[in-house]
Every structure is written in structure tokens, then in C-alpha cells.
Amino acid sequence: MNIQQNISLKSFNTFGVDVSASRFVSIDNIFNLQKILSEEKDVFLISGGSNMLLTKNINKLVVHVNIKGISIDYENDDEVQVTVNAGENWHEFVMWCISQNYGGVENLSLIPGNVGTSPIQNIGAYGVEVKDVITKVEGININTTKRVEFTNDDCNFGYRNSIFKNELKGKIVITAVSFKLTKKNHYLNTNYGAIEEELTVRKISNPTIKDISNIVVNIRQSKLPNPKKIGNGGSFFKNPIIHSKQFKKLQEEYPNIPFYEISSSKKDDNSNYYKIPAGWLIETAGYKGKRFGDCGVHNKQALVLVNYNKASGADIYMLAKKIQQTILYIFKITLEIEVNIIE
Ligand code: EPU
Known about the structure:
With 343 residues, the chain is an alpha+beta fold. It has seven helices and 20 strands.
């Protein structure tokens, strides 16, 4: 194993923040991962680096999880289970599924990052979350270096949330994820407004998974910045969920406020809740397209903070805090940060 000293992490995080790692090792198999973890526990894990904001140099061993490979566990006429190693690029995996006519992940096309981190924040887009297709997550327990496995239920998936962001944060290295996908009679999720509109425009009445994927790619390209060109970490905040009482008040003041109604999942709570697009709150507060030094708020989707070139993680974090304060002041809503801030 080649442990490098003092290397820049700029190309390992999609924000393109230039911090350094005092030591860095790229791992491409489980055996070496176990070996390194048996020698060192206080490591910093990095994979696709698409959902993190690095605000300082990392003075520990950075372990780049780069284990590749896809295998088919079983299949019948209707469905297939595939196991994908953590270091596979997410979008390339989706493209492979489309080429095999395996349905279930087409709405998740063009999401940056790697397969291994997809369960951590339960990536989601256009009406689908990765939890809908995950059957198993495999990993290594950092403390014991033993292999561990999680069923879908074990993962405690929620909106941009899972056990790996909570109880197991920093305790597990995810090495592979298994997905159950359809081989025919695909369940197509076309309910999301922009997908329906695009299908009508393209006069497609019987869409294939490839049609859906193409449309999702187009929508994403039209509003989300390509991290290879402008550094970003996707949605910086979660869409907040507020109680109906607060929502009704806001709606009186802002009759055009967009929302998704959701009912509480708690047994003793019959209230209705509303998910409000944070992008709308940030745009309404006047931040959309605004630039502050070398960072700013994307001009086509206000939920995305961008690094135009040389912004530091601390600059971007400061902007995020400023936005949080403004949103709290104007709307009395606390915006929760979705990306992982490394302080
Ligand atoms: N909106 C605005 N101004 C903006 C952005 C959005 O007013 O600048 C309002 C519009 O009303 C729009 C609505 O917000 O119709 C929803 O916007 P969009 O469809 O872009 O979705 P989102 O709620 O902002 C979420 C996910 C995205 C995912 C899209 C599509 C979160 C935190 N973000 O964004 O996920 O691609 O839905 O499903 O839930 C990510 O997590 O990194 C990510 C990009």
C-alpha cells in the first residue's frame, strides 16, 4: 500500500476545495482496508467527495475507498439483485443498469458521487430514493475490522438520512451495496412535474427507463452546475418540514409558496406537515445568483452553493450560515445543512 504524504484533496471533493491531507492512501480491496484499519482507527474516509465541505486540512490518514466491481447475485425473469462495490461511480452504475434494461435507478441519473456513499444520505431525486431499491449494505466495522451487513430495515432510512449519518457515523466503512432491480414491467416514476412535462413535449406515451434517464439528465443539466466545471455539493440544505399551523400563516403572507403536503408518520400525531423547497426560501430571500467573493448561490437553483474557483471551505460555510440566519429571520424556519461539514 502506497501511503502518500501531503497531498491536495482538491480533486477528491466536488466542491473543489483545496485542502491537504497529511497522509493519504487509496484502497482498492477489502483485505487492504482491513489491514489499514487494524493499524489505524482514527482515519478520515473519502469516496466520491460529493457531499462534503472540507473547511480545514486533514491531519490524519485519509483513506480513499476505491473498491471497484459489479456482480449479479441472482436473477429470474422479473428481477435481478446486483452487488456494487463502494468505489464505483454512481452515474456510471446507473448507465450500466440502463444498458442492461435493469429498472429502478433511472430517476437517480447524474447524481454525483460513488455507490458506497449513496445509502449514507439516502440519495434521492424526482420521486425516487435509493432506499427504494437497496436490499443490503456491506461494510467493515472500523473498531473490530470485521465484516458487517445491514438489511434495508437496519439502515433506518429517512429523507436524506440513515443510520450511517447517526448512530454509526464514523464507525463503518461501506464496502458494497446491493440493489434489487426490475428486468421487465418496470415501475416508472413519472409523477414529478418536470418529468411529466418533458414526456408530453417529447410526445412519449410509453416511456422506457432510458427515456426517463435522458429526461432526468436534461433537467439536472439545465439547473444544477456540473461539479467538474463549478465546484458544488448538490443541495446544500435539506428542504425543511414545517407544521400546518406555521405553513398556513406563511401561505397568507406568500400565497405562491410551493409545498408538498406530508402527514406525520408518528402514531400519536395526526397533524399535517408541509415540506417547503429550501430553494424557494433562499430565492425569495434574494440570494439566488448572488456572488460573495469566490463563492455564491447558483443562479438556476438557489439550494446549491458554488465555488467559482478558489473559495475556501470556511468561506462557503460562512455563506451557508448567513443564509440560515436570514431564512430564520424572515420565515422563522431553521434550514438544516445537508452536506457533511468537516470542521
Ligand atoms: N425553487 C425555487 N427557486 C429555486 C429552486 C427551487 O423557487 O432556486 C422551488 C420551485 O418551486 C421548484 C421547487 O423549489 O419547483 C423544487 O425545486 P427542484 O425540483 O429543483 O427540487 P428541490 O426540492 O430544490 C430536491 C432535492 C434534489 C433533487 C430534486 C429533484 C433535496 C435537499 N434536494 O431539490 O437533490 O435533485 O429535489 O428531485 O431534497 C441533492 O440532494 O443534492 C439534490 C440535488
